[in-house]
Input
Amino acid sequence: MKEQRIFVTGGTGKTGRRVVERLQQSGHRNIRVGSRSHQPAFDWENAATWEEAIAGIDTVYITYQPDLAVPGASEVIAAFTALASLRGVTKMVLLSGRGE
Output
């Protein structure tokens, strides 16, 4: 069976970093960390970075920075998930907070 290729947005942040660590501890080797400082770069505010970041990815863990409650967050996440679906991502998990 083919190992999942996982992309973690915000992979250097408080939650994303922990998700990456847990995935690694569980034996996953194909993890791509999403951040402006990693390659390929990923930036929620620059949709031009999204395509390369999700190329070849099966699963995405989504944390939205700065927060899901900010105006426009829903639209940005909808655009990202639509692109991810078009590019073959089959599973997406969205971190949300209570009441969001």
In short: Helices lie at 14-25, 50-54, 73-86. Residues 73-86 form the longest helix (14 residues). Strands lie at 6-9, 31-34, 59-62, 91-94.
